[in-house]
Amino acid sequence: MITFKAFLSRRPLLDILVDRLRQSRLPRFSSHHSGIKHSFMGLINPDFQTLPELFTSVFSHFKGQPDKAPIARKINGAYSPISYDSLAEDCRHFAAYLKERGIEPGDRVAILSENRPGWYLADIAILSLGATDVPLYPSLPPNQIEYILNNCSAKGIIVSNMLQLGKILSIWPKLPELNMVIVMNKLDEPVEDVIDLSQAKTEGKKVLEAKPWLLDGIKSNPDDVATLIYTSGTTGLPKGVMLTHRNICENVKSCSTVIRIDQTDSSLSFLPLSHAYERTGGYYLMFACGARINLAESVETISLNISEAKPTIIFTVPRLFDRMKASILKSVTSEGGVKEKIFFWAVSTGEKYHKQLATGKVSPLLAVQHNLADKLVYSKIRKKFGGKLRYFVSGGAALPQKTGEFFQSIGITILEGFGLTETSPVTNVNRPEKVKFGTVGLPVKNVEVKIAPDGEIMLKGPNIMKGYWKDEAASAEVLRDGWLYTGDIGEVDSEGYLKITDRKKHIIVTSGGKNIAPLQIENLILDSPYVDQAMIVGEKRPFLIALIVPDFLKLRDFAAEHQIKASSTKELINTKEVIEVYEKLLKSISRQLATHEKVRKFLLLEEPFSIENGMMTPTLKLKRKEITTKFSAEIDNLYNTLNMVYNTE
Q1: Cβ-contact 418, 409 below 8 angstroms
Q2: Where do the coiled-coil regions begin and end (predicted)?
């Protein structure tokens, strides 16, 4: 009986496979297969200078084409499109209502909503009046909403549902400037001084019939503030980032030369539109190119929605890839046997193929093996992602290099990028034709990158914010000599690819005076399948410790396999066998670290860091100060115990 390895290495059999592959016209898998389109229309109108100009040109282009739609949402089990004509009419009616209620150019109007058609409608209507919109994360508590609305003197707010409306009603007496509240959902019963979106559009239509000239002559200038996006605030109060029409429009144009999108493309939107990343990439860029945006039902239904919507591009964050990788590996290992062997052979083949591809020459034998792996494995994985996916775009946080390489090896291309809310936001992104994992890619058009003597990344370009709202001191701190000082530490390689090594504010200085970048150590820990989240602690301490949130699904599988009985999560993470898993992990990564970087001890936590418990920002960044404060007693106890051990030694 021939072994699997011997089967793959036999030349006559490979010749037969080559013939069969040619007969079936299976395309050779290459970088073109993973994302490059050679014929595309790109931007509908490459000359727009403001967002209203962008919207107007796209609406005009698709006028009278009911089969064309910028947005689709799930209704009764299927994706239902909203046509350009329908959206344009609704936006015009809603804008007329807002105008009649006193919204003037420069006024601030907030949006407090999950991703839904009403979000896009509100945004377009507000901007068409020359007003400034203020997007708010729906996860924000009333006190933070109150601060932002007062800080920007918002005249109106559009909320999604009764839950969000309840927040506003509870703080409305403390908001002297707010005189208009609109709810997207239909009101079942009247609420004083509140109108629902459907009623607002109906009234706006009547206003336009009586005053057809009402919206004529309204014009925004490129340097007008289009949006105030409040930073999520890992420390201190949030600051309002002033992004102008020029900032955003130039960034959309720059992105369109890298992420090549046309009218045949579609996305799946699930990252919050309140964030600049989804706003520019997942919304304005898609809209400007005539592509369709499919709205996910929720974060929990992403896998299902991908298979239903069949997107060609997905904007996401690294955390999703960790979950997808774990799901793929669990599915494969649970089947075991030949299927498992074939899968890991395909992964290995993919790794070798892309290493050779990077050198410009792939051996004929490996090319055939890769085509076979594509037919047996990669194509089936792509089918689970809808079958049309060209690539993922990853941002918002660092993508572990091994994660990127794993997905590349199974035929899924991830383009990691970088940017800040203050940069509208994209400054760098990997190119489909050359991805370098471990970096955030080359600068986009019109963006300059420079590294300061202390390693801080500096940026310059037409996408850089106007400043922070009502905060000249904070603006002056980061905007100096025409450059934006990002607060990120990084380096540029010989080919111009930028690598982020850490946040300047996150650098840990131990009691011995050693400067340590925690991100690289955290990524080493996160490479373990038994780890879901990790954070390094050690500021003004003699050594480092790690706070680790286990991957409890994987850990329970481990417990079952080793017949470990535990009645609770707390009991499970305190068993000897489980503790040994993490001791071995830290011991293994210590070989890759300098002495002062080694993690001496760890805490296993029962509860994950999340937005709900206040330990993550709405953009899924760790709130390090809050986490350290919450577990201060446990951290102190661990250090005291270890200090006693070191002192007795």
Answers
A1: no
A2: none
